[in-house]
């Protein structure tokens, strides 16, 4: 079978950079990661320098997803050799046991991490995942509640995340979605602000753009707001409509295939405009 | 109650949606191009989300857009499907019930379909689905004998083939569309592929 570098005509540096991009964007495209990562490790390990360790980790997790235990095992051994006694590697070992459905062993692995470091949230979360995977929902919920007591509710968690990651538009946008879902005028206004903030951080975030449009429209349509607030929100919604239209016009050019979705958006925006005025 | 017919196209896309995101809960809408009344013929589906299913804004957005598209293409939303991330539990979640309720407001013999993740391997002999219908105000399990999947063997074969060839990655759900709006959530490309693979005897329901 042709190698990845042959098939796609890429250099090892490009492959390494692709892996980095997928790491940063948190892509779980495991099959691709395995293809690219395995080749990098087998053919170019010596050139990767210290990057190789994080690549081992990334490839290992992807290998578990693709039932490639041989590859996962190899990566794990390399990491164990390099970082003996590391909590992070222990967690990876636990994940492998989970993938093999050896839940009791995996749980013991995480318990050993928590013994040394009771605040290790990653291990705690994995224990909860195990309970979920075993269908033990009641116990999972109990553990989750204990864990969340340190953090309050979902919105609070996201607030923490936003504080420590102020440039992350995804957390901002998710927080806005949670607020929107909670409902009520105050939460809607908050959601609109956070959608707007997410857009400031990344003006390509379509979810944030649609979210801004929907929250502003709902506020403008609410009988509880005064004329000033209504006017302001009509403006926000109109601005969002404009941006959405432009984005879809741009997307619609050249490709025949998304004409249907483009048309659907146009009509939707038109019809919602009528209900707002 | 009534009979429900599930087309090859609808089944294959739902199945592939679940396969594309094995770690996530996924959901989508079931559509019909047949007129209301009598057997509910599910002729197509639109895969919606693979993340944060219980969050409202994107779901609302998707429902609205699919509504508009249906009006443009003479289809109706007749149901909802979901596959839970945890394969050992295929009971409808509160979010599934909520969305199904909303759909039932507009379509009185709407169906709620849960995909049984534990039974999805290609060599399984029966369709891995569980259907619910609305009786009074509650969603109750439908009698298996009122659910029809014509040419099940062929349908299963087509789904397998698409998985093997990697073509399942052609599937675009609403979530993926929002990540890249040049991607088409009506899945015209994949529909064509599926039509190609259906034998002439199958017909395209």
From TrEMBL, chain A:
Residues 90-151 form the EMC2 TPR-like domain. Keywords: Endoplasmic reticulum, Membrane, Repeat, TPR repeat. Gene3D superfamilies: Tetratricopeptide repeat domain (1.25.40.10). Signal peptide: none annotated. It is a peripheral membrane protein. PANTHER family: TETRATRICOPEPTIDE REPEAT PROTEIN. This is ER membrane protein complex subunit 2. It comes from Hucho hucho (huchen).
TrEMBL record, chain B:
It comes from the Eukaryota. Pfam families: UPF0172. InterPro entries: EMC8/9, MPN. Residues 4-138 form the MPN domain. GO terms for cellular component: EMC complex. Component of the ER membrane protein complex (EMC). EMC8 and EMC9 are mutually exclusive subunits of the EMC complex. Belongs to the EMC8/EMC9 family. This is ER membrane protein complex subunit 9.
